[in-house]
Amino acid sequence: xxxxxxxxxxxxxxxxxxxxxxxxxxxxxxxxxxxxxxxxxxxxxxxxxxxxxxxxxxxxxxxxxxxxxxxxxxxxxxxxxxxxxxxxxxxxxxxxxxxxxxxxxxxxxxxxxxxxxxxxxxxxxxxxxxxxxxxxxxxxxxxxxxxxxxxxxxxxxxxxxxxxxxxxxxxxxxxxxxxxxxxxxxxxxxxxxxxxxxxxxxxxxxxxxxxxxxxxxxxxxxxxxxxxxxxxxxxxxxxxxxxxxxxxxxxxxxxxxxxxxxxxxxxxxxxxxxxxxxxxxxxxxxxxxxxxxxxxxxxxxxxxxxxxxx
Length: 310
Ligand SMILES: Nc1ncnc2c1ncn2[C@@H]1O[C@H](COP(=O)(O)OP(=O)(O)OP(=O)(O)O)[C@@H](O)[C@H]1O
What we know:
By secondary structure, this protein is α/β, with parallel strands linked by helices. It is built from eleven helices and twelve strands. The protein has two domains: 3-85 and 167-300, P-loop containing nucleotide triphosphate hydrolases (Rossmann fold), CATH 3.40.50; 100-164. The chain is 33% helix and 22% strand. The strands form two sheets. An eight-stranded mixed β-sheet has the order 6-7-8-3-9-10-12-11, sandwiched between helices. Strands 2-1-4-5 form a four-stranded antiparallel β-sheet. It is globular and about 65 Å long. It binds adenosine-5'-triphosphate.
């Protein structure tokens, strides 16, 4: 398995639950989309995978492994995977790139650490990919600093860095948020092309159900840190069963929503289904979390699922 997360539970140090228990699997070459709105715990999940949880948050339960290697504890095995076999494309390249390093130095960074490759060798090896990503390889361009690149170029530089050690798994954390619609489409097409050619698996994290369904074959929808529905992208898009998935679909279609309010803060989360205070189809039993129905890959947690239209 490229990625296996079992019953992962993240808490604040005062015991307030932030995410989970969450389980998911990404098979080699598979494209899984994790969809949820702001505050649902997407970034914390990525930080867990790369061993950089912020102070004040701890893993209180569950296991995480990539390529059958546990990622729960720092160590040599973890370091061999992080940034090499499993690479991260960040949400905000401005924060991810070092303002004091040139484009060439960024590209040479991970292969230097993981393979002991010289910058010259890395740049030679990476030149075709850089060109393909629309990043010229002449000396003048390679000497540019991040602030001398456009937003789209910065994000494609992050993608080049993520691919620099030929990973088997990409974790894309809202990678197109900072891009205009045209640049978003270019970026998505590029990632999908490279994914097909290289047989890459990826976990694409986003709040945008429409984008996730373009990028991924399978989706997992989370709300308030908990999985509410999972299934093939075409099914969730054509016949969502959890009212929250239907809400995301309405948002993706830019239609007004019927339910009011916001995701409650972690310490104010309700009992039962986390969406129940906002759910238009709420009933009394929603305060008890109904068990997951179906398989982990295609199922939902809801006492009153939407019925497919006749
Ligand atoms: N260092 C921290 N200490 C305490 N709580 C935190 C910390 N970091 C995040 N949280 C809380 O954990 C929850 C999940 O946050 P997270 O940043 O993972 O959400 P997200 O889904 O990535 O949102 P966005 O899409 O806005 O980035 C939020 O309620 C957030 O306030």
